[in-house]
Every structure is written in C-alpha cells, then in structure tokens.
Design brief:
Structural class of chain A: alpha/beta
Largest sheet of chain B: 7 strands, mixed
Largest interface: A-B, 47 and 41 residues
CATH architecture of the largest domain in chain B: Alpha-Beta Complex
Number of helices of chain A: 13
Strand content of chain A: 15-25%
Number of domains of chain B: 2
Shape of chain B: elongated
CATH class of the largest domain in chain B: Alpha Beta
Oligomer: heterodimer
Number of strands of chain A: 10
CATH class of the largest domain in chain A: Alpha Beta
CATH topology of the largest domain in chain B: DHBP synthase
Strand order of the largest sheet of chain B: 12-18-17-13-16-15-14
Largest sheet of chain A: 5 strands, mixed
Number of domains of chain A: 2
Number of helices of chain B: 13
Order of helices and strands of chain A: EEEHHEHEHHHEEEHHHHEHEHH
Radius of gyration of chain B: 28 Å
Chain lengths: 383, 364
C-alpha cells in the first residue's frame, strides 16, 4: 500500500467468530465497526434449547461462505481492501471453532493476508471500545472533527481497567493492565450468571431460554419481595457462585406453591411470578455487585468495562454505571445489544489491536501450528 | 377495502362483518392489547399466502395464531406442563406461547421446526370475533416487516405500498392504541423436566431407586464431595479396566454438580468444574498416581432421543480409564438399554425437611 497520508492508517480487519451458536462475520477499521453480521442459528438450536455441537458445526459450515460474502458486499469492500484476517480460536465448542478457523486460514492463504488468532473472551472484554460507523462518506471529514472534540472518545484509556464479562457461559472479572496484558482475578465457580437466571426461569415455567423473559418480567415485579441470599460473603477472593441462588429459588418456588395450594389456588399467580423474577435478577446482580465492590476497594482500578450477553440488560448497566460513578471512575459498555451477544465485530477489534502490535502470522507454513483451543482462558499465554 | 370506525357501528355488526370477511379468505386489520394485528383464516392456504405477500420479506419467519381459549389452542398445538402453567397464569394477555404444532394450520404459519406460537389476546372484540369465527386467525402485527409498530391505522397505511394496501379487505379502526410493547414470547417446546420424572423411572428402570433406602445423608457440600470420593475409590478398578458411568438425578439446585466436583477432586483435576448445561459436555484430563484418563461431565436435560445421544458420541467415550458423569440420567435411561458396556452407578439426590441432602445409590 502506498498511501502517503500523514495520519495513522487503521487496519481493516475481516473477522470471523463461530465459537458457539452464531456464525458471525464482521469488518472493522480499527475500532470502528463497518459491518457486523450475525447469521443467527438461534431457531435451529431452539429445538435443542442450547448449543448442540454437531448441529452447530453443520450450520456454521452452511453459513460461513455466504456470510463472508455478505459482509464484504455490505461494507462495499473487496478482499484486496482487507488488511488482515482475525478469527476466534477459543474458548468455545471445538467442532464449531474449527469451521471458522479453517475458513480464516483459507482466506489468509488465498489472499496472502496476515492471520490473527483471537480469544473470544478478549473480544467481550474490549467490546465496549467499539465505535459506530456513523460516518457516511460525505460526512466523513465533519465527523472526524467532532470525534476529536468529543472528550469521551478522545480521552486516553486509563489502565488498569476492570473488565466484567457476564453471559450465559461466563461470569469473569478480568484485570486489563494494557491491551494484550490480562489477568483473570475472579470467575464463577459453578453456573454462569446468565445460566442461573435461565434455570430459575425454568422453575417457574418461562420456557427456554428464559433470560430475556426474566428481564421483561422483572420490570413488573417487586425485587424486594423475596430476599435472595448473598453468596460467598465469607470468601476473601473475587470468585462468584450462583448455585446457592438456584437452590434458594427452588425452595422458594416449592414453598410458594404449597402456600398457594393451602389457599385453594391452582398455582402461582402472575404477580408472584413477576416478583420471583425481579427478586432473582436482583439477587444475581447483587452478588456480582458485592464482589465488584470488593475488587474496586482492593485494586487500583481506573475504569470499569462491561461486556457479554447479559450486558444488554439495562438494569445491570445501570447498577454498574452507578457504582463506577461512586468510585469516580469511567464506565463503558457496548453501544448496542448486538455487540453484547456473540459477534465478530469485537473479534475484529481485538485483531486490529493485535495487528498494531505486530502479533500476527504471515507465513502460510506457520498456520499449521494454529489449532482450535476450546478452553483458552484470557490471561493465559497465547497459543 | 373498507374501514369501519368502532364508534359508529354496533358491536354485533362489526363481529358479523369480520367473520364474513375472514370466511371469504379476506385480510382484516384489527386492534389488540399490543398493536394493530393483521389477521386471516390460519387454516386457509390462499388467505395465508395473501397475508405473507402483505407482510413481505418474512425470510421464513413463522406467524402465530390467535385463538379465543385454551380449548381451541389444544386442537392446534400440543400443550405440555410448562405451557399449561403459562396458559393458566398469563392468558389471555400479551404473550405468545410457543408449543409443538399439530400441523393443522396452512403452510407458512408454523415454523420450519414444527412449532407454533399461540396468542389469546386480552381484548374483548378480538375474543368475540374469534369465538364467532370458531377457527384460529393469524396473529401478526399489521405493519409491513421491519416498519413502524402499528398503534394507529395511519401508522400502517403510510408505510405500505399501493399494492399492499389493495390486499387489505377490512380495517377495524378504534383510534390510537396505548403504546404497549409487542407480546412477550415464551418458548415452552423444551420438554425437559423441572423435577425428576416419577413415571419414567417406574416404567423404564429396573431399579426403583427413589423407593429404596437412603444410603447417605450429607449436611454440607464437603460431605457430598467426600461421599463421591469414597464411591469412586471403591470402583477404581472398574474405572481402570472398563471405565465407569455415574448417572445423577435430582432437582435443579440440589447439588449434582457438587457431586461431580468431588469426583474431580479425587481424580486430582486442577481447576474448577463448572456446569456443563450450556455446553452439554465438559472434558477434563486427569493423572492420578501415574494413571491417566479423562473425566467427562455431561448434562442431558435437553436430550430427548437416542440419535441425539449418539451425536454426542456418548457411547464412544465409554473407555477404560474414563469416568463419565451424567446429570439428568433419567432423560436418557430408556435410550441406553443394553448398549452400556460398563458399570453404571445411579445416584438420586434429594433434599429432606431438615435441608440436608439424601443420597440413594444403586450399582447396576
């Protein structure tokens, strides 16, 4: 490339994520999301109520080529415009990961592009940095100016940042010392927060997955009607545990049903179910908040970032933003709910950072060393 | 197209007019407690095709049906326990309850996976015409796909092409509706148990474990883990020679994963054993006193057929050295039969009045 612009040229990354449900392909320019396509398999999985490994693999295989083409078309770009390829290599379901990795390798070899291996959780961690592509071609210059003026955008990140990832599969506290330098300082030792809410939803027959229904119902309920316990107050570490909340919910539902029977009712009434949802959600978030406070008390945290599927929950955002304000630190969360769920834009963003640090593979011969890494933890040495 | 204003017409005439229009395969725009809906006879293929071209760009998304009561719903979908609870508690109301379809609606109404959403709207006019029509009517919002939510007739008409407007036969105009959200969707098609199923065990299992004596009472997580460790120590030769399957049952939150954690501690697996619900299968390598193998931790609450079991390579992982821990064993007991080439230990965990865990253990 022979651009003579004085300003820094941001890498344009084509990113692929096939770590579980969704085949996702995105194109980003640095932190700016140009396209973020999630070819949802949710319907396909609904009959299994989760991620069924073999089904997922098959569906990813069918989806991956058209999704890549669609992404390029939507961005109005050709492969020659792409600087590098980024792909999730873990953690996730092994058969699903394989589909994305193979596609990324093929593209890297065919078009002679650098290949960047990305950790899915690092994607969630950095997802709050993603920026909208509100800049149409015409308004580009005008917007660039306002970007510079906007203090929120222009302000330099202050490390260390505490990254909180809350989803159906993860509940993690990660110390972000710098880009590429992470330490997982706390995590759930049993169920993930989203999974716990799903299971409580099952107990009151809200179907599956129940997470979004619970959020909806919680708005109509009284979060103080049932006092869920605060788990792990004795432990000094930053780990979380949700199984006690699950057990409490189970016993609560049994007790309430017995009371309803004595009163001659058929089962729980509407308001009681709303109140259970509100109280359970409150219990889960209170636990996260309690441990978060512990981290903020003891560690020298400068910013708080939230990512992961449950980050789309408005109440959780509100609670964390409030807490960040109390500690006088900046709070960031993804700009859209699409960026909270599994998506490739966040993978592209991580890949762009890695590209800038020179953390990529160029020689096709070296690609053979890259393999799926289903249990890759953020903070462990890159493979 | 005819627009009837509800103010100037008596209720009986409106109902008659709607029923006539629907009977002829017509498309009716009507108010509900959420938004204006677009309805056609859900059993009439031509009418449904007309609705689909009205909505445009559905991309295979299914429609739902509106019925006046549970009785009619039962003719079109299979209502399981979970759905029954929702019907009883929340309907009529702004909810769409998804169940397995009986395949009696026109093509394009149910999903490609054979599921169907059912609405019983909390709106007397709608319930009245549904009762009079005596067939289900499609329940979809009256806007063209991807357009503004229709709270007023103008919202609809201003966003339609001339071609689309021509497809409408009748509009019932009650003015602007309260801006309520679209219905909440509750998918009840997962037939998985909330609690251990009594019936299946009596029929399928040779050992009626739940009626037997309690083998252990545990008052703490640590005690439950210790019981698990003793159990596997006792069966250690079996693990080495042929592998071992441990089938766990018990309600949500009773401590099945705690038991698995005990086994992992015995196998000296470092790191934390987390729930496999989301991933179906968690795999761990272990080395205990120079003997190595794998521990598999599985969650089968979503498994409903032998085919699914085989897809997860369940029978292939039963190997010498491997410990296979299955949560919700009773989900698959009937599919395993004689195919299990090794010893099975079934464990039922329950909570007693005092809040302690009772464990019943049977070696098969």
């Amino acid at each position: 490339m022979s651009s003579r612009k004085v300003e820094k040229i941001e890498p344009i990354i084509l990113a692929i994520d096939t770590s579980c449900d969704d085949t996702s392909v995105a194109i980003v320019r640095g932190e700016v999301v140009l396209v973020n396509i999630v070819a949802s398999q949710v319907d396909l999985h609904k009959q299994y109520g989760g991620v069924f490994p073999t089904v997922a693999k098959q569906a990813h295989r069918e989806n991956i080529d058209p999704t890549v083409k669609h992404a390029l078309k939507r961005a109005g770009l050709k492969m020659k415009d792409i600087t590098a390829i980024g792909v999730t290599v873990g953690p996730g379901l092994a058969p699903s990961l394989e589909v994305g990795i193979n596609k990324a390798k093929d593209l890297a070899i065919e078009f002679k592009k650098p290949f960047i291996a990305v950790n899915h959780i690092e994607g969630h961690l950095l997802s709050p940095l993603a920026k909208r592509n509100s800049i149409s071609k015409k308004a580009e210059n005008k917007n660039k100016q306002s970007d510079d003026i906007d203090p929120k955008r222009a302000a330099k990140i202050k490390f260390p940042v505490l990254g909180v990832v809350v989803s159906g599969g993860h509940t993690d506290f990660v110390l972000i010392k710098n880009f590429g330098n992470y330490e997982r300082i706390g995590f759930s030792i049993d169920d993930a927060a989203g999974e716990c809410l799903d299971k409580i939803g099952r107990m009151v027959y809200l179907g599956y997955p129940a997470g979004s229904v619970i959020e909806e119902f919680a708005k109509k309920g009284d979060e103080n009607r049932f006092k869920f316990p605060l788990p792990m107050t004795q432990s000094k570490d930053y780990n979380l545990s949700f199984s006690g909340l699950k057990t409490f919910a189970r016993n609560l539902v049994i007790k309430l049903k017995q009371e309803a029977t004595i009163e001659g009712k058929q089962g729980l009434d509407k308001q009681t179910i709303y109140d259970i949802c509100a109280s359970a959600q409150h219990g889960v978030f209170r636990h996260i908040l309690h441990k978060l406070e512990k981290v903020l008390e003891n560690e020298n945290i400068k910013e708080l970032w939230l990512g992961g599927g449950v980050a789309a929950n408005v109440t959780l955002r509100k609670i964390l933003r409030f807490k960040a304000n109390q500690y006088g630190i900046k709070f960031k969360a993804p700009y859209s709910s699409k960026l909270c769920g599994d998506n490739a834009a966040m993978i592209g963003l991580v890949a762009a950072k890695k590209f800038e640090r020179g953390d990529f593979i160029i020689k096709p011969a070296d690609l053979g060393k890259i393999d799926r890494n289903p249990k890759w933890r953020v903070g462990e040495k890159d493979n | 197209m005819e627009i009837i204003s509800i103010k100037n017409t008596n209720q009986k005439n409106i109902i008659d007019k709607i029923v006539q229009t629907l009977s002829k395969g017509g498309l009716v725009i009507f108010p509900t407690e959420t938004t204006y809906g677009a309805g056609v006879d859900a059993t009439n293929q031509k009418a449904v095709d007309k609705l689909l071209s009205y909505k445009s760009r559905r991309e295979g998304k299914p429609l739902s049906i509106a019925v006046p009561d549970q009785k009619m719903a039962e003719q079109y979908v299979e209502i399981n326990q979970s759905a029954l609870e929702i019907y009883r508690t929340f309907l009529p109301g702004p909810f769409t309850v998804i169940s397995k379809s009986k395949g009696k609606t026109a093509q394009g109404v149910e999903s490609e996976f054979g599921t169907l959403g059912v609405r019983i709207p909390d709106y007397s006019l709608v319930l009245d015409f549904l009762n009079a029509f005596n067939r289900p009517v499609t329940a979809t919002s009256a806007n063209s796909s991807g357009k503004k939510r229709p709270y007023a007739v103008d919202d609809i008409l201003n966003n339609l092409s001339g071609k689309q407007i021509k497809l409408i036969d009748l509009i019932i105009d009650v003015g602007e509706l309260t801006h309520n959200k679209p219905s909440t969707i509750i998918d009840t098609t997962m037939s998985a148990p909330m609690t251990v199923r009594q019936g299946d065990r009596d029929i399928e299992s040779a050992v009626k474990i739940d009626q037997g004596e309690v083998d252990f009472i545990s008052s703490s997580e640590q005690e439950t883990k210790d019981i698990a460790k003793r159990l596997i120590l006792k069966n250690w030769n079996q693990v080495k020679k042929r592998g071992l399957v441990i089938g766990l049952d018990g309600d949500l939150g009773v401590g099945k994963t705690i038991f698995a954690k005990g086994i992992a501690e015995f196998l000296q697996i470092e790191g934390i054993i987390t729930s496999p619900t989301y991933s179906y299968v968690n795999e761990y390598d272990y080395i205990r006193h120079n003997f190595s193998g794998k521990m598999y931790h599985l969650d089968f609450w979503k498994i409903n057929s032998k085919e699914e079991l085989e897809r997860l390579d369940f029978f292939k992982i039963i190997q010498p050295g491997n410990v296979i821990i299955v949560e919700w064993w009773d989900q698959i007991n009937q599919f395993v039969g004689d195919d299990l080439q090794t010893k099975l230990i079934k464990i039922l965990i329950s909570e007693n009045q005092a809040g302690n865990r009772e464990l019943k253990i049977r070696e098969i």
